[in-house]
Amino acid sequence: MKFLKTLASFLIFIIRYRHKINVNKKIKDILLDDVYLLGSGPSMKGLKLSSLKNKNCIFLNSFYKHPDFLEISTSDIDNKYYVIAPIHPPQDELVWAKWLKEIEAMTPKNVVMILGLNYRSTNIKNIVVKYKLFNKHKVFYYYAGNYSGLVTEKSINPTKNLLASETVSLYGIYLSIYMGCRKIKLLGMDHNYILYANTEDMRMYSNATHQDIEKTTVFSKENMTLEYLRQYKIFSKYQQIENLFPGRVENLTKGGLLHIFKRENFNEK
Question: What phi, psi does 40 have (nearest 5°)?
Answer without folding.
Answer: -120, 25
